[in-house]
Predict the structure.
Amino acid sequence: MNRMLVSLLLLVSVTVHAENVLHVKAGETHELADAQSVIAYDKLILEDGAVLMIPNGLEQVQLDAAWAEIGQGVTIMAKGPDGSDGAKGKDAQGQAEECKDGVRGGDAGHGGQGQEGTSITMTLGLAKLGSLVVNSRGGVGGSGGAGGTGQQGGSFDKCNAPAGGDGGAGGDGGDGGNGGQISIVYRLLSGNTVAGPVNNLITIQNGGGKGGDAGAAGAGGAGTEGKYINMRTLTGNRKWMAGGQAGQPGSAGKPGRDGVKGQALIQQDLRDRMDAMIQTQSAQVAALKDQLVTRLAEEKRQVEAAAAQAISALELQVTALKTNMEGTANQSSVDESITSMQQTLQQQSARIDELSAKLEQAMQVMDARMDTLADEVKGLNKRFDELPSTETSQ
């Protein structure tokens, strides 16, 4: 008993954790079940030339795949069914009774309306993409039927010749179905083999269906042919009686209206794009930091070099002053040396102040730019964290 219970639990566990995978082999066609309007796969594999059929009757389908491998020449077929052609009007057979006009031909049936293409919303994690066609065109409207032919007028002898029956009206063409609305949101999985921009690899065909052709007018029935009749007189003369007129043709049908093209959207998942933006901003921050560090190092080197130059110049002037004081009692030479030393000191001090100001300004610019970029990255991270897992931009 215990073994049976353990086996049952293991079977349930395997069933619950089994991957939901749809794998359509190369060149094969797979049709989804009628009840599947929302479908989610762990893996969706469509090999080269595979066709995934969306059954007729579904107005909208949501197809999600966490991992999608799509080969070359793959098709998702969700085209609306074409409308049926209208029935032909019934011909009025034979000839009417004596002295009676022919019966009118029957009116034709109208063409059926083409159905709308199925609207599809897809969310795909792309591991591989060759080329994909999504066909959600509207169905073609059915042609109107041709009107029936009118009946031939009846024979005559003691009456005027009867006319032929009018032709029946042609049927109107059915309207074309509207194209489906297509939305494809994708994520590029790590290590994907998508060769090129996704928008260039997916073709969406969701034009409206063509309206059905108008049905032709039914031909009028033939009138009774003219003939000679014997006059009921003593002389028995013959008299020509003109034949009856042919019936009028029926009215032609009207062509159906073309369906409206659906909307289409192919875009990368917003969370992926936000992540790419954050990475770009972070790279810009790092590059700016390196640039400013290099600049500051150069400014510091210039300040240190100027200070060293000033100290060296002062040392030389001090040495010259000592020599003048030891070798001569000329007060004017000593005064000139002191004045020159003071001027040099002032010049070097001004140079050092100038370089220090530049260094301070560069540091302020770097701090401001770093703060701005940090705020931008923080804002992107906040928006990223607030996004629900299925949010996409429209």
